[in-house]
Amino acid sequence: MSNIKWIKLSTAMFDDEKIKLIEKLPEADTILIIWIKLLSQAGRTNANGYIYLNENVPYTEEMLATIFDRSLNTVRLALKTLREFGMIHIDDDSFIRISNWEKHQNVEGMDRVRKLNAERNKRYRERKKQQLLENKTNDVSVTSRDGTEEELERNKEQDIEIEQEQDKDVAQIIQFWDKNGFGVNNIHAKKQLLLWLDDSSFKDPSEVILKALNIACENDARRLKYTEGILRNWENESLLSVEEIDNNHKNRNKQAVSQIDYDPNRDRF
């Protein structure tokens, strides 16, 4: 969800001696597919070749097996092989990094995307802060000599309210997920979905995420991939609020009705 839509793959990648050696191994095709998936995941993470759930949580082998839809033993074999060939590095904290990432990818472009994401998240936090300020009904007057202490105290209170608001959003999403059959014990999927709160273009991410979850329930598709697919489609179509999504849906329904060729004289029974 870094807004990186593509990564670079060399047309000569299968001429590389490491790839040629891997092709002679058992499970060669699966190992190479996992290699491509790792490259893609590194692009999504957009952290100079690192792959992780978030900056504090590395992907476990079990997580990767779920994400890549491969058996745990296959993932372990692939990681072991790629590590031995020096194609990935796994540090002491279990964080995976693609070796020589900067040599093969447009890191300058990815860095620009990362900065744009940071700016967007900053604007989102500022909007939240402004909303809280506007909703305040009691404005405490400043009576001290220079107002510094009172101003600092108000800022602290506002920051606490923002954190509480964000915690409320997280709680609502997790509660909906757990109560509607998405999988109480699927911690990884819940964490992945919550990343949309801070890393999306939506005006009110929590409302949009809950709407996507509702649609997934209506279609009996209680899965992370399905829900994220809905969210990506809305982002790609620049539908960034529940109101815009609902209006788009209504317009599509109207267009569908208007396209029905019905003649009351011709088609009466």
TrEMBL record:
<dbReference type="InterPro" id="IPR053162">
    <property type="entry name" value="DnaD"/>
</dbReference>
<feature type="domain" description="Phage replisome organiser N-terminal">
    <location>
        <begin position="6"/>
        <end position="126"/>
    </location>
</feature>
<dbReference type="Pfam" id="PF09681">
    <property type="entry name" value="Phage_rep_org_N"/>
</dbReference>
<comment type="similarity">
    <text>Belongs to the DnaB/DnaD family.</text>
</comment>
<dbReference type="InterPro" id="IPR036390">
    <property type="entry name" value="WH_DNA-bd_sf"/>
</dbReference>
<dbReference type="Pfam" id="PF07261">
    <property type="entry name" value="DnaB_2"/>
</dbReference>
<dbReference type="InterPro" id="IPR034829">
    <property type="entry name" value="DnaD-like_sf"/>
</dbReference>
<dbReference type="InterPro" id="IPR006343">
    <property type="entry name" value="DnaB/C_C"/>
</dbReference>
<protein>
    <recommendedName>
        <fullName>DnaD domain protein</fullName>
    </recommendedName>
</protein>
<feature type="compositionally biased region" description="Polar residues">
    <location>
        <begin position="136"/>
        <end position="145"/>
    </location>
</feature>
<feature type="domain" description="DnaB/C C-terminal">
    <location>
        <begin position="176"/>
        <end position="246"/>
    </location>
</feature>
<dbReference type="InterPro" id="IPR010056">
    <property type="entry name" value="Phage_rep_org__N"/>
</dbReference>
<feature type="region of interest" description="Disordered">
    <location>
        <begin position="136"/>
        <end position="158"/>
    </location>
</feature>
